[in-house]
């Protein structure tokens, strides 16, 4: 089990699924952001797993994973500041209040 | 009685880490209060770091702990504390409202799994310590991946400036608008 | 000149008159009238020449008109005893009516059109008579119908005339449908040698019938000869105004009286009977067809005679009389004699034309068609008309040695000889009724009632009107025709010889049959005289004591109402269908389309819900579908 790629791929798919469910079903904006972060983590696991099992220089996979971590951090920061701005404008951080695109 | 071989110990450890990751993730999306979700998220991040460690990359594991757990999760806590109204929980929803999203999510994941598992992948390569060292990562960052490295620096800079610009206090309104804002 | 050229001249001369009118010279009525008379004379001369000049075995001359690999149509003439005899009748009557019309239409503004169409009719009728190919006959048959339509509706400012013309054309058209189908089936049924195109020439048809080569049946159970015969009979029933397509003929009296005398007594309606005579072997080959024809004819004879007994308008009586007499002709032919029915056709042409022309004189003088009015106003004061009336009515009733008696006797004898006793009895009844209404007509006109409220209008106004040139022309024609009709009964043997049959067929046998016929005559005439001719009679007729029957007869056995109801139902049904389709199918479909578009827009708009999670779901769902498709391939 430890030495097979399939385990890690299944793990990352499951984690991705959970994160996706969180994004689609939660109405709190912060909870949605958590879901997004979970999806990104699934990607990181995937990358490192392929670095381990796919034959090329493992450093490539790790560097790619580091870049993903960096982007996740930047995106979380910007997202949280947007959530604060929404809170100031609407008084709540529920996604139900953001329906201007309707119609 | 299973034997206490290194492989078995590794398998158990991986199993525990998988359980931790998935359990934490499920808690992170299902509990009602956002604080509880954040705690589950933290647990899940520890599990993910452990998995990366098991795969052989200490640096990535360390970075995950530092950034996800120590940076992102904390920032989320701050954001929650600054923005949540008195009632912190969401109303429960009916199954009919939940079902379509579940179907989409599981369907998408199912398709992706199907694609992954119907392919063939090569066997594991032996672990070569040098290739997994921080030294190698650093070397790659400054040679092969120099351009993305610089680009992500600018991205982080932009993110900092942007988040500050979005979240700062708005200016004082014009005197002509009256005293509506505080 | 050769016979072919004579035939072409005979048929083409009247047509030339019509073409002259068509190209615009209708503005010169005298020219058209003159040409019409001249061409009528030429045509008459032509028919006599052809009749006297044919060889004994007949003569035929054709050219191919249209030819395909399977079927050819020929244009040409076929001169036999039968065709030339009929042509003779048509040509002579046509000339007489043309001359009469000069007087009758003298004051009519549209007389150029009248003479032109009359000439067209003559040309078409002669084509029907002489045509060698049945397709040619059919084309000419339809032309005859067309010219009849134009002539009945000649006074087109009268709505009743327009209606009558339409009715005539449409009813005969229904019959012609059957005729056309019969011709098509005939074409299919006659076997041909392989590689040779088939054709519908009369000679071919008669040969096929005599060799009995039309074998087999359609759909396994309908004998071919019977089906073809019945379908052709449809056309004959329509054209010759037999039951059930007879009610157009009384209405056709809306046209000018010379038209009635030419078309609707002597020639056009006789065309149906003539076609029967032409193709008699084909009709007699099937017992079903001949019996059907006999039944229809017998029924119509009695029915029409009954109606003629109660009408008060002279032309109506004569119209119903024509229907009845045509039935007699058909009975004679359907009973199997080659001469009986045709002889009656010739004699009937003579005396019925005479009667109509006489009616024209009376109507012209009295300005009314009612017999009672004519009797009061004119009575016996017009000598020529009275002479014509008496001669014609006597012939019609069947007074011995006059034309009608001679030919009707042959028919009755043939019926009895062939053993059709039921039809024989009906024919006798019809003869009695014929005698009744003929005598009634004479009595009402020549012996008007003495006890009445108004003065008889024999004043100078009428008398002065009696002596203009038009009236003299009309009177002259009537007198000549009357004299000719007196002798018409004696042409029997010559006619029989001309047709290639023995004179024995038209001989009168003074036996019980003759006695019965004379008894019928006396019964009918006596009854009518009792009702109308006595000096102090009520002038009401015995039928006025049976008002229900009298009404039914006056309404033509309610058949007209029945056809009216049928056509109304059909049209109402079609209208309802069309309305239904228009409202429910067409309008509705457009409405549904609009609603559907609006609702579709509503559904599409719901995709833009404004909810972020919905957008993500949709996107991921589609991506999953695409991935699945890629993976599946």
Structural description of this entry:
The complex is a heterotrimer of chains A (103), B (182) and C (633). Chain A has 103 residues and is an all-alpha fold. Helices cover 77% and strands 0% of the residues of chain A. Chain A has a single domain, classed as Helix Hairpins, CATH 1.10.287. In chain A, helix 1 (5-25) runs antiparallel to helix 2 (29-53) and helix 2 runs antiparallel to helix 3 (58-90). The longest helix of chain A is centred in the C-terminal third of the chain and has 33 residues, at 58-90. Chain B is globular and about 60 Å long. The N and C termini of chain B lie far apart (72 Å). Chain B is an all-alpha fold and 182 residues long. In chain B, helix 1 (6-30) runs antiparallel to helix 2 (34-55) and helix 2 (34-55) packs antiparallel against helix 3. Chain B contains 6 helices and no strands. With 633 residues, chain C is mainly alpha-helical. Chain C has helices at residues 3-22, 29-53, 81-104, 111-130, 134-152, 159-189, 202-210, 224-239, 248-251, 257-266, 268-278, 280-284, 287-308, 314-334, 340-366, 371-377, 383-397, 403-417, 421-446, 460-465, 469-488, 492-498, 512-533, 547-554, 559-606, 612-632, and strands spanning 59-67, 71-79, 198-199, 217-218, 222-223. In chain C, strands 1-2-3 form a 3-stranded mixed beta sheet. In chain C, strands 4-5 form a two-stranded antiparallel sheet. In chain C, strand 1 (59-67) and strand 2 (71-79) form a beta hairpin. Chain C starts with a helix and ends with a helix. Residues 453-464 of chain C have low confidence and may be disordered. Chains A and B meet through helix 1, helix 2 and helix 3 of A and helix 1, helix 2, helix 3, helix 4 and helix 5 of B.
